[in-house]
Structure prediction request, 675 residues.
Amino acid sequence: MNAIEINGIVKSYGNVRAVDGISLSVGEGEIFGLIGPDGAGKTTLFRIMTTLMLPDSGSGTVCGLDIVKDFARVRRIIGYMPGKFSLYQDLSVRENLDYFATLFGTTVRENYENIREIYSQIEPFEDRRAGKLSGGMKQKLALCCALVHHPSVLFLDEPTTGVDAVSRSDFWNMLSRIKASGVTVFVSTPYMDEAAQCDRLALIRDGVIIGTGTPDEIVSDFPYRLLSVGGDRMYPLLKELRKTDGVISCFAFGDSHHVAYDPAVTGRERILASLADAGFRGCSAVETAPSVEDCFMWLSGSGDN
Amino acid sequence: MKEFAASAVKEFRHIFRDRRTILIAMVMPVVQIILFGFAVSTEVNDARIAFCGDMSDPEVRKTVDRIDQNKYLSIVGRIDRPSDAEDLFRKNRADAAVCFAQDYGSDLISSGRTGAEIICDGSDPNTARMIASYLAGVISSEQTDIGISMAGEKKISMTPVVQLMYNPAMKSSYNFVPGVMGLILMLICSMMTAVSIVREKETGTLELLLVSPVRPLWIVISKMMPYLALSAVNFASILLLSHYVMEVPVNGSLLLLSFAALVFVVSSLALGLLISVISSSQRTALLICGMGLTMPTMIFSGIIFPCESMPQILQWVSDIIPAKWFIIIVKKVMIQGDGMASVIKELSILAGMAALLLAVSIRSFKTRLQ
Prediction:
């Protein structure tokens, strides 16, 4: 049985279709990543799956329980960490944790083993008000509160947004340990570089899933070859590259441009040559392996056509 | 039940850690009682009276002395013509003027027919009316005395004796203490409940509460607990203040009064919950409480304007305001000293409203986000 199974979920706000017919299945015990930019409909999908919102149409189950009809039972077996830090800022770390444990009919002592590893890092600050914690510690506390009742499925809505790079990689390490304890993790993020940490991914854009699979599958589905092109005048270079024969797409990618080209039509030398003709001399071009971000850009670009 | 207790404890912590709010909630009733008691008083004290008349006339002198001795009135000076009164009013040096007719004393003695004119500053009609009646009272009693002593025989004269039952001193505090009690209890309960629920909506914690297996109803009811406690404290402090500072007696049963307050508080808590359902931000909740609750309560509950003198339609409006019924009960129990039997109608209306509001607000409270 899949941990999460949703079918044709649609949700509109007025005229805006936030979620437009999404179907997904998440296997038990995997870390499933929902990757997409802000405004793609991630949070809405989370709220529907966590029974906080009703879909306009479509159906879904979490651990076999219907997310609409059995919502009360679904709420017992899931842990949810919303995107915004949503704990009581005026309560201390310990009071927050105790409160959420009681809400789920358990105590911190009973489930201490579940959260020990994470909680031990914030335990020295037990008496500090949650509002006075640093970003990384807030996030750990929120994770503890979502885990304290030992849920079967953990929903994490953009847990790493606004957290520094070290804390982010810490966080992913924690997730893999949570997964090892048998919890299915459904996590969303706008950061493409975190995609590789997931077992499986779904790429979401404008309320539609534009690709699913393991990170490797998604990358290997990329049908073109990729060049990383650098030069002096980056913006004119970008415009020139987009006009070049055989170039499928070109996006700014950090300090270089990622150029997807059709190997049947053109190649590295020909692209460099045509750039030189256009007056862009001394450009560097290195063949690179496509990343999930490249795939996302390509998939969302093809969605437009 | 454990969940309920934990939520209530959490709610108490929120309040006790928010020093400013608790200070406002505790001090507001005290300030309001003192404000209404001393500043917003409708009683007239030390009205400044000018007079116009012949000071060599002994009757005029006697009357003027009598006015000056009245504890609510004091003579500030003499004017030559009645038309000078306007000048004094404009310069704000007098509140009213009394003008005696020529030959006031001799006419009064010979024929008993004479006149005195009272000129008041009508720009403040309530005060003017009160000063005028005080003055008229003083002059007519003086005339009666003179009539009796001069003629040496009893002329036909009749003065009605007015007795104000339950409030012999005609203190306005007898009216505003029940009013302020109703207003404060409603404000504390409905406004603070609404704001505290909406705050959880704003910060996103409500999302977490809803996702938990606890029935949202329990969370909501546990939220009301601290405000219930707070209103009990306020109820006590208003009673103590009004009793020891304003000298308003508690003639009836304190138990009955407290029970009525409890029913009223429940209706206010339900109103607060209802407001929290329809508002999405603390600001909206505050606005709805201010415009939709406080103002209608001030106007329609009979605190300021008597309901009986309103047009029929507005009287119907006033009937749906819980505070009106509560204030009637408080007046009856606290000041008239009535028992259960005489407030049973008002109490049942209030209880019915509380039940209805509670049912509606709990039904409309959503177990999901909108």
